[in-house]
């Protein structure tokens, strides 16, 4: 690992990510170069850990639970209640949030704000008590309507609002549908905001990206159009779009208000379940933004396959954010969210939350799961395992790539099984996790558990990834039954030669990297483990090979335990820190670069 000095900060950058390439994570000086191929996150807030970063101007604002934590303004007698965040220097960006109006007074509005360069000068996308959705320019007491549509605005209903500002072009969307684009050069830069005027409302899932692509859009729905109503929490880092190019005319389109028998065009979208059965090898299902509410598992059936040269694709449409919400499910192993049982699929940019078991369950092979977020599920967020107990070992899931994915705040009722990522019990060979982030799950970041009644699982590779704060949820919740490791690499004294390289374990509730009774010959290279509660590295048996690893603590803790082949290229912790630890002082920060690389900084 090459270390170059940075003033007060250190940056890990994994080299260019593709579905086929594997390259090193290094510490480099300077900024990450972002390409315009997809969106980079500038700011996000789901309010699970509070409302830091926001500044109030009027109104009565509190955090309240609504399926998850939300930010509520409750005073309908206030004409200008605002919360601002972000930078006054932001120019071209997209801001999105979910908004639930609770009540309207006379002339009341609940709105999302962009380019605010003062307390009363801004662009805003407003839900009104007069059943209108309007894109407005506010300048003091003067409100100019730039675009708008008539639409039923129901109190107690969640709406996804989005504003894109690019130069003098300002666009507004509701639930992924364009309401209008206007030209207005009055404000060139400014912060984002949440706004109510003579109204009360809840806000959640705030996301700001540097994407300013304006996708083709169907006309805004009429007042009779249905609107998704299930609440859902927000990503801590959002999934950018796979492409900003014009989608192919043969693609199938899915929307929250889609109809199963619809043609599946952008103006006549279908349902996800229908599109999955209709897409052909090489075809694409585009999911429009918004919340999709499900009470049963969405399944890509065994035999519904693409090919190695023509994958089937299930992907977020451009910069939009589809949220698959399964909060209607009870906690039960049968109640998964999205089940990928087919082969040669590429799933991109989806958020899957609140399932009764796994958020995403993969039993197929040769699939790519990219830029997914799995959160608040009641078992492991994303798990690879066989479908049935009768599935022969030759058909266990193999050669799957989990790429630039995030999994957080997954928690089961007993606190014992909900990990961020898992490839355990029954998986074949060749499964890879790359540029993945697992944090604040009730059990482990990664679980590669194998057991005697099924036999050894295949070798799993974890590279250029991050596990932190596992064992403690974002809201501070814990469970005594959780193992709370960063990377748990085995079980029941069965030898499997897993590979873990260029990855980071930080502040997990037990061990950072642990063999967990795996006596195999694992390859553990160029990893960094920092301030985990017990051991940073815990390997009590086996013949694993350790090279280039670094262990650091800011205080006291249990010495690392290494059994295997270890040389002087490692700096393990035995009461003192090595010279490399100065690079990892300060708070941890991370993001995904536009090409999917994981970028981690300390300072």
Automatic annotation (TrEMBL):
Pfam families: Laminin_G_3. Residues 211-251 have a biased composition (Low complexity). It is found in: Secreted. Transmembrane segments: none annotated. Keywords: Calcium, Lyase, Metal-binding, Secreted, Signal. Residues 1-29 form the signal peptide. InterPro entries: ConA-like_dom_sf, Pectin_lyas_fold, Pectin_lyase_fold/virulence, Polysaccharide_Lyase_9, TAT_signal. Its main location: secreted. One of its GO terms (molecular function) is carbon-oxygen lyase activity, acting on polysaccharides. One of its GO terms (cellular component) is extracellular region. Residues 209-252 are annotated as: Disordered. Its cofactor is Ca(2+). Belongs to the polysaccharide lyase 9 family. This is DUF1080 domain-containing protein. It comes from Allocatelliglobosispora scoriae.
